[in-house]
Every structure is written in structure tokens, then in C-alpha cells.
């Protein structure tokens, strides 16, 4: 940030006018009230006020580069007091030397100058405080402005992210293809059609639950994935085989709501969609060791199938969600072998509290 | 009485095939000659059965419905049946009879089949090959990511990343990759429209090249040049082609 007084022409002019006023009053008071010579009065006023005006501009840097966020109030106060003493010392010392060398023989003025030092120090301190105050007001104002702007962009981003998440959760093609299957089953296998509608409704209800950032027991999340896979199983028949290997003691552990669904959907998309052979999807859980839940999702894929576009978005989003929830960089890892793709999730059971 | 229309169903989901079958049952104009669960089997069935009408899904393993049609020298009337609405525009390239969005009603389905029957009965010219169509449109921001070719009974899926250049020869395009060259009955215009313009450039009436695989430019005559590709292949760039290349590469 630039010195606010130099930031634009209006501010510079305002600053100068303020000093001209101060200097004018200073000279007049000196001339009339202390009965100094006019020339001496004007010189005294010019020397001391021009000096302070210059120092005042420099003060900005002592404020700008002193990080007040990291200091406690006492430190900040002492720091300013120290700067004030140095500034006043330099100002008075320089002014004194200049005026003495200009009028080495004017005894009346010398006596006056000596006796006025304490008063000058007090006035200087007040002006110093005023300038610092203006600087702080300015910084505060700019910060607020920036924060308001940032907040509104953040709000837009959050909303977009929410919409993206909803879209990612319910793939419209999944929905329409499933409804088409129901339409097909209604006449031939009405029992199975009803079953499928119930599962589809269960899946949709779970997906739409508005606790996107909340935690869910693994048991519930798995139930939902099972519904999803059973629906897909009706569409793909023998091309889809799935198996869950989850020990009972893991069932009560928590996972972020809907964390598995995009990954399972990826398995279907890159595995089942592209293969004419049966594709096996396996979900394995392990929670015996470090009070963390380890989940591994493995699927076969056809190595000959050319890579599909859009690969990696599901993985990236899931990794981001885990990072935001648990502050861990490596909560999601994946590996790809000749014909199998596996994703490994590590889910801590103590949630990371974001700092404010 | 008119002969019944030979109809083939190609969809990778069994319930979807069942639905079409049940909708077609009882239609006196239609004879179902077979079903296929993927593009490969579909191609075989088409060559074997020579159907008049295809009910075709788009999203299928191995090769898509569009890619299947591209492999045929001439193809029957087609009704697309898919859950993806974003492909409707491409379907027009194939002069499709209709484009059904799953799930659809019996009425909507019958209407589509009725149109197809009419076309076939009136011996309306079989759907013109892609080569004769004006260049089509891909969905906004989407480009081909693979090209499917056929030699005899073998089907090869070439990822577009591997294509170095494409050369026109009569009705055919020859696609050059590090692994070999493949022929496909397709126009340069089609490739020009459907490949990513950030990666491919038409440098000549009969040449499209992958820009990143050009290694050298050699003078040819006053206005034109010869491009040397990474594989060593040399390609003649026309005056207009050189102008486009200069714009892209900024020299």
C-alpha cells in the first residue's frame, strides 16, 4: 500500500493545506504573542513545520511495516512511544541546529527557543498522534473494503461449489437411465420395478440431505452405496459385480456425508461403462490400527479402452473435501496397475477445527 | 403386402433392450432381427443381418453409437435412444430419423418408428454417408478424443493424442500414428470441424497436421513450404495453409 497522503492529488493538496495553515498560525502567534522579529517568526515556522511535514510522510512506513496483528496492545503502545521519542528528538534537534545557525546572535530568540522546547515537544507529540491516527483509519478503511469484496466473491464461490457438488452427486444420466430401466421392468417384472424405485428414492433422499459437510456413520454411507450399486446392477446385469469387506467394528466410524459416492461413480464410469467383460468393484475397510478409518475402493478396468475425458475431477474434489475437513494432504491416494484402479482413503476420527 | 422392416436393437443395458423389444412387439411393420449389447457385436450383426432400421444407444463400451455408424460404408435408418441430450446435434449429422431421450413414452416411441417406416417404405434415399454432409457441429467446447477405424473385421480405436497427421486420398482419409497408418472413409472437412483446433491445423486441402509434431519447415517454392514431422514424414503446406500456420505459431 502506498502512503495514503501521496496516493492521489486531493490527498497531497489536503496534507499541504493543513501544514500551511499550521505554519501560518505558528508564524503569526510567534510574531505577535512572543514579539519576535517577523523574519525570525516566519523562518522558525517554516523550518519546524516543513521538517515535521516531511517526517510525517515517513511515519507511514513505521506503521505499514509494523505488523500490528502480531503484537499485543502494550507492545504496540510502547513501540509507538519509542518512535514518537525518536521522531521528536530528531525534529527538535534538527530545527534547533538550523535556527541557531541561521541567527547565531539573536539572544532574544535563543532564550525563547530554549524555553519553548517542552511546549514544542507537547505540540509535536499531539501532531504525531494525529498523523498516526489518520494512517490507522486509512488502513482500517482499506482493509474493510478489501474484506467486503473478498466476502462477496467467496459467497459466489461457495454457492458455485454447492451447485457443483449437487450436480456431482446426482448424475442426470444415471437418473434417466435408471428411470428407463424402471419403465422397462414395469410390465415384465413389476415387483423388481417397485424395488428399484424404492432404492432410487432412498438414494435420492440421502443425496439431497442438507448436511454436505456433516459426518455420517460408515454404515449409513455404505447402505447408500449399496443402493446405488444395486440400481446400477439392474442396468448392467452380469457386467457389474460388487463386494464389500467391512469389519463390524468399522461400521460406527464416521465419514463425510457422500464421500464415497463420486468415487464409486468413477468406478462405474471408467470400469463398467467401457468394458464388455464383468467388472468387479470392491470396497474394503480397515480400522484396527491408528484410530483412523482406512477405506480402499478397487475396480477393474479395460486397459485397452482409451482414457475418457473428465477423469480426475471426482478424485480432485474428494481430496479437497478431505483436506478441508481433516487438514491432511494425503488422505486420498490412488494407484493404477495393469487392469485395476484403487483409491485409498484415510479418515481421521477427530475432526480438524478450522481456525478463525 | 410390404415386407417387414428388419430392425436391430443395439444398447448395452438389458432393460433398455427389453423395453424397445416390448414396444416393438405387435407392430406389424417390424421384424426384430437381433440385439447387440455393444458396438463390436453391433457391427457384426449389421454386416450379417443387413437391417433396414437401427435402434441405437450412444454411450456404450468400446465404441459409441456414433463411432459405430462411422465405420459403415452405408448405414440403415437410425433412431437414437439415449439419456444424453447433449448429443442431439451430432445425431443430425447422421440424418437420424429421431432422437429419443430415455425414458420415453410408448407414444413418442411409436411416432419415431412410424417416421422410420415411412422413410423406408418410400425408399427415401438411405441416410447419406457422412462424407456427403456439410460439416457437422460438435457440442460446445467438445472435440473428438478418439477415432475408430476398421480394417476387414478388425476394429481399432486410436486415441487422438497419437495422431500425427491426416492425409486425404480420394474418398478416404489416411491417419498416421507412430504405430502405423489407418484408412477411414471420411472427409477432411469432418476432421477439421471435429478435431481440437488448438492441436490440429489444416495446412493444405488434403493435409491436417498436429501442430506440436512439426519439427522443421523447409522451403518448397515461392509461397509454400514443406513441413517435416517428428516421424520424418514430409507434408506440403499450401499458401493458405502457411498463412494459418503463421497465425497459430505467431511468426
Molecular structure report:
- Chain A is built from ten helices and seven strands.
- Chain A has about 350 residues and is of the alpha+beta class.
- Chain A has a five-stranded mixed β-sheet with strand order 2-4-5-7-6.
- Mean pLDDT of chain A is about 85; it is low at about 350-355.
- With about 250 residues, chain B is of the alpha/beta class.
- Chain B contains seven helices and 15 strands.
- The longest helix of chain B is centred in the middle third of the chain and has 16 residues, at about 105-120.
- The chains are: A alpha+beta (about 350), B alpha/beta (about 250).
- The interface of A and B includes residues 179, 183, 236, 304 and 309 of A.
Which percent bin holds the helix content of chain A? 55-70%
CATH superfamily (homologous) name of the largest domain in chain B: Response regulator
Largest sheet of chain B: 5 strands, parallel
Oligomer: heterodimer
Determine the mean pLDDT of chain B: 87
Low-confidence stretches of chain B: 129-137
Spatial strand arrangement across the major sheet of chain B: 2-1-3-4-5
What does the overall shape of chain A look like?
Answer: rod-shaped
Number of strands of chain A: 7
Shape call of chain B: elongated
Based on the structure given, which CATH architecture of the largest domain in chain A is correct? 2-Layer Sandwich
**Estimated share of beta-strand residues of chain B:** 25-35%
CATH topology of the largest domain in chain B: Rossmann fold
Enter the CATH topology name of the largest domain in chain A: Heat Shock Protein 90
Largest interface: A-B, 29 and 24 residues
Query: N-to-C terminal Cα separation of chain A, in Å?
Result: 25 Å
Amino acid at each position: 500500500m502506498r502512503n495514503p497522503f501521496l496516493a492521489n492529488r486531493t490527498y497531497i493538496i489536503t496534507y499541504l493545506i493543513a501544514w500551511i495553515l499550521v505554519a501560518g498560525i505558528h508564524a503569526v502567534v510567534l510574531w505577535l504573542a512572543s514579539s519576535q522579529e517577523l523574519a525570525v517568526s516566519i523562518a522558525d515556522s517554516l523550518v519546524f513545520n516543513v521538517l515535521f511535514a516531511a517526517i510525517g510522510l515517513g511515519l507511514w512506513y513505521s506503521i505499514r511495516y509494523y505488523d500490528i496483528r502480531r503484537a499485543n496492545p502494550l507492545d504496540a503502545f510502547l513501540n509507538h512511544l519509542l518512535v514518537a521519542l525518536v521522531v521528536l528528538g530528531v525534529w527538535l534537534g534538527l530545527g534547533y541546529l538550523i535556527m541557531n545557525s541561521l541567527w547565531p546572535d539573536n539572544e532574544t530568540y535563543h532564550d525563547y527557543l530554549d524555553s519553548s522546547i517542552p511546549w514544542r515537544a507537547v505540540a509535536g507529540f499531539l501532531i504525531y498522534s494525529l498523523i498516526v491516527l489518520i494512517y490507522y483509519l486509512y488502513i482500517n478503511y482499506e482493509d474493510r473494503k478489501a474484506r467486503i469484496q473478498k466476502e462477496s466473491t467467496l459467497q459466489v464461490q461457495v454457492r458455485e461449489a454447492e451447485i457443483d457438488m449437487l450436480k456431482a452427486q446426482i448424475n442426470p444420466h444415471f437418473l434417466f437411465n435408471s428411470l428407463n430401466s424402471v419403465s422397462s421392468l414395469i410390465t415384465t417384472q413389476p415387483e423388481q420395478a417397485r424395488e428399484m424405485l424404492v432404492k432410487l428414492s432412498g438414494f435420492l433422499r440421502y443425496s439431497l440431505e442438507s448436511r454436505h459437510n456433516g459426518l455420517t456413520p460408515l454404515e449409513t454411507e455404505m447402505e447408500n452405496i449399496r443402493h446405488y450399486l444395486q440400481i446400477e446392477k439392474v442396468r448392467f446385469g452380469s457386467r457389474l459385480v460388487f463386494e464389500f469387506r467391512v469389519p463390524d467394528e468399522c461400521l460406527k466410524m464416521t465419514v463425510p456425508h457422500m464421500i464415497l459416492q463420486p468415487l464409486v461413480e468413477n468406478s462405474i464410469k471408467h470400469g463398467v461403462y467401457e468394458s464388455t467383460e464383468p467388472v468387479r468393484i470392491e470396497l474394503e475397510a480397515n480400522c484396527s490400527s491408528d484410530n483412523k478409518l482406512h477405506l480402499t475402493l478397487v475396480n477393474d478396468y479395460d486397459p485397452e479402452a482409451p482414457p475418457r475425458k473428465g477423469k480426475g475431477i471426482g478424485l480432485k474434489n474428494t481430496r479437497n473435501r478431505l483436506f478441508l475437513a481433516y487438514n491432511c494432504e494425503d488422505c486420498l491416494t490412488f494407484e493404477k496397475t495393469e487392469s485395476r484402479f484403487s483409491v485409498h482413503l484415510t479418515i481421521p476420527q477427530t475432526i480438524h477445527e478450522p481456525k478463525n | 403386402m410390404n415386407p417387414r422392416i428388419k430392425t436391430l436393437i443395439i444398447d448395452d443395458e438389458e432393460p433398455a433392450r427389453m423395453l424397445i423389444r416390448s414396444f416393438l412387439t405387435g407392430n406389424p411393420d417390424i421384424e426384430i432381427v437381433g440385439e447387440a449389447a455393444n458396438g463390436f457385436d453391433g457391427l457384426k450383426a449389421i454386416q450379417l443381418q443387413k437391417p433396414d432400421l437401427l435402434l441405437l444407444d450412444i454411450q456404450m463400451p468400446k465404441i459409441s453409437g456414433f463411432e459405430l455408424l462411422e465405420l459403415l460404408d452405408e448405414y440403415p435408418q437410425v433412431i437414437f435412444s439415449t439419456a444424453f441430450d447433449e448429443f442431439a446435434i451430432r445425431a443430425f449429422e447422421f440424418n437420424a430419423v429421431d432422437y429419443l431421450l430415455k425414458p420415453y413414452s410408448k407414444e413418442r416411441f411409436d411416432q419415431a418408428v412410424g417416421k422410420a417406416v415411412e422413410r423406408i417404405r418410400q425408399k427415401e434415399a438411405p441416410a447419406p454417408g457422412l462424407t456427403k454432409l456439410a460439416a457437422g457441429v460438435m457440442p460446445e467446447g467438445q472435440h473428438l478424443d478418439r477415432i475408430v477405424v476398421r480394417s476387414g473385421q478388425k476394429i481399432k480405436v486410436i486415441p487422438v493424442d497419437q495422431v500425427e497427421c491426416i492425409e486425404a486420398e480420394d474418398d478416404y482419409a489416411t491417419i498416421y500414428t507412430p504405430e502405423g497408418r489407418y484408412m477411414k472413409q471420411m472427409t477432411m472437412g469432418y476432421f477439421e470441424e471435429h478435431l481440437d483446433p488448438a492441436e490440429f491445423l489444416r495446412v493444405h486441402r488434403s493435409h491436417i497436421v498436429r501442430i506440436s509434431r512439426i519439427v522443421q519447415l523447409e522451403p518448397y517454392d515461392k509461397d509454400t513450404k514443406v513441413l517435416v514431422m517428428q516421424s520424418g514424414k514430409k507434408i506440403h503446406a499450401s499458401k493458405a495453409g502457411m498463412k494459418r500456420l503463421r497465425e497459430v505459431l505467431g511468426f
